[in-house]
Amino acid sequence: MTRRRLFLAVAPPLLALALLAELWIGAAAIPLSEVAGALLTLDAETYEQSVVLHQRLPRALIAVYVGAVTAVGGAVLQGLVRNPLASPSTLGINAGAALSVVAGALLFDLGTAAQGVAALAGGGAGFAACVLVARLAGRDRDPRGLSLILAGALVSMLLVGMTNALLLSDPARRTEFLGWVAGTLTHVYADRLAAFWWIGALSLLVLALLARPLTLVLLGAEKAASAGVEVGRVSRLALAAALLGCGSAVAICGPVGFVGLVVPHLVRPLVGSGLTLALPACALAGAIVCLLADLVAQTAFHPYVLHTGLVTDLLGGLVFLVIVKRFYLSPGKTA
Predict the structure, then answer these.
(1) What's the pTM?
(2) Does 335 map to a domain?
(3) pLDDT digits over 69-111, tens only?
(4) Residue 145 maps to which CATH number?
């Protein structure tokens, strides 16, 4: 059995098991009979079933959404900017979206829907600032694209600092966003998922429709154009869809970092670089990784619960070092 077929055979059951573990184990184990009863009737007859339906299920759905959308967005960004270190967390997207939400809520008292719009705009602005700084730094003279990642780190640090400054300036509402800015998957944000899920779904649909022409673009603009692909239009649509999807994920639960960086590198050796298969594979793997990270966040230091973003940051930081060594520090390697 090839690695591709093995992945396709294993990933869906693994996603189902991770989802079950999230509902079953959580911060404290609930009998499987109670989990099954809650899911079959969708009505809470006991306290345990109420926990499953109103706390753990929304949390699991948020994890699936954020993991899938962020991983797919990361795969598209890595292809479009032709850099293995590209992701929503390294290109200023997450930081820009987070700043816009916090600024909108604290300075203008924006509601949930308006905060979502602010996150989408902020994610795009953060990415634009990253590209601008990279161009000013001479990106055209940097064939490996390292200046883009350094620009992303600089812009992200600036935006995160501004976000923290805003939080410190408003002690009354600080606690409302302290967990959110760390990337927290919690049932409290179920209303945000209900308001913004369609944005991520639309993003995934657009990227799925663009998968084949976008794959040709990534193989080379001239080859894609000779095959009848409108390179500029496809690239812009794919970038816009990726930015909107990643921005919507931040709008829901804050910036859950490095899923978009790690997952494409885990998936690519198994299914290949063709986006027709790689994008749905990233969606599956991203959902699994996010569910497992959230499970670790809930159980690793029980009875204390970590922010899921801290777990993904730890995992992503380690993988980030490996990728830097492979693509930038190893002799003969280029991005």
Answers:
(1) 0.93
(2) no
(3) 999 999 999 999 989 999 999 999 999 999 999 999 999 999 9
(4) 1.10.3470.10
